[in-house]
Every structure is written in C-alpha cells, then in structure tokens.
Design a protein that fits this description.
Chain lengths: 115, 115
C-alpha cells in the first residue's frame, strides 16, 4: 500500500518570496510521485511527476520537486511566488500494485500569496 | 486544457435518487479513472476502467458503478443517493501501454449536491 502526508494544510507567503510545500510518502514499491494543483472551482492540473529518472524534477510555472529516498520526501518548491500561484496543491503517489494504477492523494496544502 | 470533458457541470438530486455522470477521454487514451472529492479533502479513488473492464476499485459500495464504451468514454452511476455523496466527481483519462508511467489527466469535474 502507499500513502502521502502533506505536512502543512495552509502555507502563506508574500509575492516574490520562495514557496516550500512539504510532502512525505510511504510506498512498498519504487513509487511514481506527482504534484497536482487545483484552482478554485477547477479540475486538477499536473505540475510535475517523478518516475525514477532524475531526482530533481522540473515542472510547469517554475515549480520543481526533489525526490529524496532516504527521507521519503518529495517537497515542492518555487523560487518566487506569484499571485496566480494561490491554489490548493496535492501531493500524489501511485504504486505498482498489480491491477491497481490508482492515485493516492494527500489531504492538500492551500497556498495563499499575499501582495 | 487537458481535453477531458465531463457533463453535467452541476447537478442537484434528492436522497434516494439515481444519477449518471459522463466523461469523454482525451484523444488516444484508453483508461478512465473516477475520483470523489468531498469538500476540503483530497480526491479519493472510486474505480478505473481499461478497455471496457473494471480494473481496480477503491473503498466504495456497489451502488457506485461504471461503464466504459468502445470509444473510451465513460459513465459513473450512483444509485440510492445519500447526503454524503455530495461532492465533486472527477474523471481522469490516461494511456495504459504496459508501463507504469501513464499520467492521469483530469477533467473539470461534476459538482453533485444531494438534498
């Protein structure tokens, strides 16, 4: 079985400052890990994914995440926040269980960006 | 935009009624997954369909059922609606080609309210 824990339910930053959204995972197998973003009243948009290639993954809109197996972490970062980054962010894991390719979502982190 | 569409956008039903939600996959995708997202929570996996067969199910009762059609579009049916079924229902399509890295792309969702 696999699971993810998002360590912060809310993060507030000022525009132009760095963003750090924390995620720890648990998986019996080598996991595939994703970050999705959900803007209000919108569907989920893929930000980036890790699939056992490079441990530092670059995504859209300047976001990146680093896979650290020793720490079982997959934290999402961005050097400089923009007002449009305000949204709900989900860390997601998918294991390799036979017959199951379901995504397991964390509980989400709401990012607020102050002007 | 992901190319995944869902209908209707919003729906209001009363307890005990039945509902059908629809999803059109992104072109070239052969797998559809359905998720339920209750207010303030992360999405939870309901089930997945691959080549018209159910291919994994989450912890949802049998009154949640689905179909996938030859054109890979899909339906989610919920019988005997309960108040707790009020949620955003998300459909995700992906291409399953034997590997484990089929990324899921989400539609905008259907907001179901049960009164």
């Amino acid at each position: 079985a696999q699971s993810v824990t998002q360590l912060d339910s809310h993060v507030s930053v000022s525009e132009g400052t760095p963003v750090l959204l924390r995620c720890n995972y648990s998986s019996s197998y080598s996991p595939s890990l994703f970050w999705y973003v959900q803007h209000p009243n919108k569907g989920l948009q893929l930000l980036l994914k890790y699939t056992s290639a490079a441990t530092l993954v670059k995504g859209i809109n300047g976001f990146e995440a680093e896979f650290k197996k020793s720490e079982t972490s997959f934290h999402l970062t961005k050097p400089s926040a923009h007002m449009s980054d305000a949204a709900e962010y989900f860390c997601v894991v998918r294991g390799l269980d036979t017959g199951r390719r379901a995504l397991t979502f964390g509980s989400g982190t709401r990012l607020q960006v102050q002007p | 935009e992901t190319g995944v569409t869902q209908s209707p956008t919003h729906l209001i039903k009363t307890r005990g009624q039945q509902v059908t939600l629809r999803c059109s996959s992104q072109s070239g995708h052969n797998t559809v997954s359905w998720y339920q997202q209750a207010l303030g929570q992360g999405p939870q996996f309901i089930f997945q369909y691959y080549r018209e067969e159910e291919n994994g199910r989450g912890n949802f009762p049998p009154r949640f059922s689905g179909l996938q059609f030859p054109n890979y579009s899909s339906e989610l049916n919920v019988n005997a609606l309960e108040l707790d079924d009020s949620a955003l229902y998300l459909c995700a399509s992906s291409l399953r080609s034997g590997g484990a890295t089929d990324t899921q792309y989400f539609g905008p969702g259907t907001r179901l309210t049960v009164l």
